[in-house]
């Protein structure tokens, strides 16, 4: 029996990874948080699958994590358990408002999980994946960024992820654990959380088209990101754990685009040509045909320290893991716009 444990199973990546592993006949255990409202929408379509087992817990609760690891060990028979640590307070802007909580869950949470594996006697029977991030590069020290590029995180989130990256490496070196980091550049989808910029744009477009809203208000239009599709990236996570040895890998598309360009292409898909006018906080995006102002800029969405541009070089993963993204930038935007603006699109397909 192939068995996996996923933290962050209710998130964007967690939901795609669960589908991917269930299709490969894994027994998937997932950690969900108790909330006062439903937080399992992204995985509800998988509930009928008997190979999916959900446990309540939180990365801030070490006894809970230890208990779950012991339960998996006791109930399942496996040669190697795959643990994917995807749980995190993952919003960069929010991390400036909740720095201590972010450090506790996104940073120290990684240690709690690694130590639960060790304390339950699973060190040699477990492969561990840590969801590291291109936010580690922050103020980039070279372009493009590879596994050897020095880190310079620019947010409490980035700093917490730096701890997660190093404690993963440390457990590999100190205890011989199969523990790997995936340093993933931004990846999006129709399941992306609505406050990340790509989804904010495609949802905002829908609201403008339906008349629910008359404008989209954003922050830094010139930020550039290396945007891929989450489906490609969860396959990469799995490939990282199938490699002969534990190691750290960048996953990226190797091209970057600006927020401005993402807006232009999304609106163009619905027949709206955006023309830019003005500068800084006074810049606006105008619908060329009607002359209506549709895009505004507000400093409310600026960050105390910004990451201006991220561009990955995933040659190592492409060479050693035979990983390559199938989606390109245009395909990603098409899926996201269709999903948000076309009622017939199946959110979970
Ligand atoms: P996401 O959609 O925000 O999902 C985060 C998941 O973590 C959710 O399931 C959330 O649960 C859970 N979570 C949050 N705090 C928790 C806690 N204290 N204890 C247990 N679970 C907790 O994030 P994502 O985009 O799927 O990203 C997955 C991971 O990859 C994250 O660690 C993220 O930082 C990292 N990453 C993402 C990207 C990207 O571009 N997407 C790039 C690099 C790295 P609820 O559903 O209950 O909130
Ligand atoms: N969220 C948001 N909202 N971002 C905006 C906005 C806005 O209104 N306007 C401009 N931006 C800019 C941000 O300033 C940033 O430069 C860029 O758009 C991307 O922002 P997000 O989509 O929030 O993602 P992120 O790059 O900060 O973080 C994501 O990617 C990381 C990997 O590099 C998250 O998924 C992190 O968890 C992940 O580690």
Keywords:
349 residues; alpha/beta; seven-stranded parallel beta sheet; four-stranded mixed beta sheet; 10 helices; binds NADP nicotinamide-adenine-dinucleotide phosphate; binds guanosine-5'-diphosphate-alpha-D-mannose
Gyration radius from CA atoms, angstroms? 20 Å
* Mean model confidence by pLDDT: 97
Q: Report the order of strands and helices.
A: EHEEHEHHEHEEHEEEHEEHEEEHH
- The general outline is globular
Bound molecules: NADP nicotinamide-adenine-dinucleotide phosphate, guanosine-5'-diphosphate-alpha-D-mannose
In spatial order, strands of the major sheet run 3-2-1-4-5-6-11
Given helix and strand content, the structural type is: alpha/beta
Count up the helices: 10
Overall strand count: 15
As residue ranges, the low-confidence spans are none
Strand content: 15-25%
**Percent of residues in helices:** 25-40%
Describe this structure in words.
The chain is α/β, with parallel strands linked by helices. 37% of the residues lie in helices and 19% in strands. It is built from ten helices and 15 strands. The strands form four sheets. A seven-stranded parallel sheet has the order 3-2-1-4-5-6-11, with helices on both faces. A four-stranded mixed sheet has the order 8-15-14-13. It has a two-stranded parallel ribbon with strand order 7-10. Helix 1 (12-23) packs across helix 7 (230-242) and helix 4 (99-119) packs parallel to helix 5 (156-175). The longest helix has 21 residues, at 99-119. The chain is globular, with a radius of gyration of 20 Å. The two termini are 27 Å apart. The site of NADP nicotinamide-adenine-dinucleotide phosphate has 26 residues, from helix 1 and strand 5.
């Amino acid at each position: 029996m192939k068995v996996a444990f996923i933290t962050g199973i209710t998130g964007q990546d967690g939901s795609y990874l669960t589908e991917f592993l269930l299709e490969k006949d894994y027994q998937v255990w997932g950690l969900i948080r108790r909330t006062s409202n439903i937080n399992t929408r992204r995985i509800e379509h998988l509930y009928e699958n008997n190979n999916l087992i959900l446990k309540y817990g939180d990365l801030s609760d070490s006894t809970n994590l230890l208990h779950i690891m012991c339960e998996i060990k006791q109930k399942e028979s496996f040669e190697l358990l795959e643990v994917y640590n995807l749980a995190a307070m993952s919003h960069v802007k929010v991390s400036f408002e909740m720095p201590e909580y972010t450090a506790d869950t996104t940073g120290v949470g990684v240690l709690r999980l690694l130590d639960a594996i060790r304390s339950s006697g699973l060190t040699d029977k477990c492969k561990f994946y840590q969801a590291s991030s291109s936010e580690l590069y922050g103020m980039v020290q070279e372009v493009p960024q590879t596994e050897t590029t020095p880190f310079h995180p620019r947010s409490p989130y980035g700093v917490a992820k730096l701890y997660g990256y190093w404690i993963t490496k440390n457990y590999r070196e100190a205890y011989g654990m199969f523990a790997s980091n995936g340093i993933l550049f931004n990846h999006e989808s129709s399941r992306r959380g609505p406050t990340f910029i790509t989804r904010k744009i495609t949802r905002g477009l829908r609201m403008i088209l339906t008349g629910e809203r008359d404008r989209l208000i954003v922050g830094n239009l010139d930020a550039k990101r290396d945007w891929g599709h989450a489906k490609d990236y969860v396959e990469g996570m799995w490939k990282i754990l199938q490699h002969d040895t534990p190691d750290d890998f960048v996953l990226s598309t190797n091209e970057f685009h600006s927020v401005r360009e993402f807006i232009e292409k999304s609106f163009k898909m619905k027949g709206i040509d955006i023309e830019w006018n003005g500068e800084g906080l006074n810049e606006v995006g105008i619908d060329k045909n009607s002359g209506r102002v549709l895009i505004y800029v507000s400093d409310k969405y600026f960050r105390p320290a910004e990451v201006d541009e991220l561009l990955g070089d995933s040659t190592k993963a492409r060479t050693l893991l035979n990983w390559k993204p199938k989606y390109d930038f245009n395909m990603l935007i098409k899926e996201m716009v269709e999903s948000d603006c076309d009622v017939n699109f199946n959110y979970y397909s």
